[in-house]
Design goal:
This protein is mainly α. It contains eleven helices and no strands.
């Protein structure tokens, strides 16, 4: 009897998976596009990305101060335009194209380059001894990583995650020179960024919409035979998404702990000591759902 129950359960799981796969690949056309924000800050981000010198900013961490200052000055108008865009609601348009590879390469060159230019500005401020101002630049770069990929498919979100990772690394590097106000600013900003992030499930839905929009029925049938590969790619994306959330929340705890130590003259004993004076609640591990601790 138990064997039959298990067999039926396995069969039910298989049927459900087949239904899901069939819906994704053979379902109807992509749903109607959502109304775009008006004005859409994403338009400003794209224009700003087109204004920079491609590839130049990738060496910003090794540049001498004079060359770094020249880079920041040259890209000043682009950075101003990007910041104007970040003050507006942003979302990528759903103008799905079959040339995703070409579009993603162009997008990566412009958006990643612009994010690194913002980080370069932060490094210049840090070299000048203005740590608090550097904090503002790095936080802008993190926001840029999120807003420049909002509404996009997996490949664009991965570029956004890479932008955020670069800024997070630089931000962590100056934590020792940040005063209490700067530390509190970081914690509050990261809490807000975390609360506004587009869920990974939304990105995956947009990926499915893209598949249905650009492939005809025969192509969708062929994709059924690549389901396992596509499933692995989606799982890999979900893992990288969670890793980025974990990195951001770890940074939030580190800056909160730094502020606590500066104000109280001793380090906190646990993350719970930081509530509610430094953040509203202890950040959750995105994998386990449990409260995170002070350890790395």
């Amino acid at each position: 009897m138990a064997g039959k129950v298990i067999k039926y359960l396995v069969l039910a799981v298989i049927v459900v998976n087949v239904v899901v796969i069939t819906y994704v690949f053979l379902g109807g056309n992509a749903p109607p596009s959502r109304p775009m924000p008006n004005p859409n800050g994403y338009d400003d981000l794209v224009k700003a990305g087109q204004m920079i010198t491609p590839g130049y900013s990738y060496d910003y961490k090794r540049m001498p101060k004079e060359k770094l200052a020249a880079l920041v000055a040259t890209n000043g108008p682009a950075l101003d335009l990007a910041r104007a865009g970040l003050k507006k609601e942003c979302r990528m348009p759903e103008n799905y194209s079959r040339d995703l590879a070409g579009e993603s390469m162009k997008y990566m060159t412009q958006m990643k380059g612009l994010a690194l230019d913002i980080c370069a500005e932060g490094r210049l401020k840090a070299l000048d001894g203005n740590t608090n101002a550097a904090v503002d630049s790095y936080l802008d770069a993190i926001r840029f990583g999120q807003e420049s990929s909002r509404g996009g498919v997996i490949v664009f979100k991965l570029v956004g995650i890479a932008c955020e990772a670069s800024a997070s690394e630089d931000l962590r590097g100056i934590i020792g020179g940040a005063d209490t106000n700067a530390c509190r600013e970081v914690v509050q900003a990261l809490e807000t960024i975390d609360s506004k992030e587009e869920p990974s499930e939304a990105v995956l839905r947009q990926e499915d919409n893209y598949i249905r929009a650009v492939n005809n029925m025969r192509e969708r049938i062929n994709l059924l035979f690549e389901y396992r590969m596509i499933r692995r790619e989606k799982d890999d994306f979900s893992n990288r998404f969670r890793a980025n959330v974990l990195r951001r929340r770890r940074l939030e705890i580190e800056f909160a702990a730094r502020a606590y130590e500066l104000e109280k003259g001793k380090p906190p004993q646990s993350a719970a000591d930081l509530v509610p004076d430094y953040f509203k609640a202890v950040p959750k591990d995105p994998v386990t759902g449990k409260d995170m601790g002070l350890g790395k």
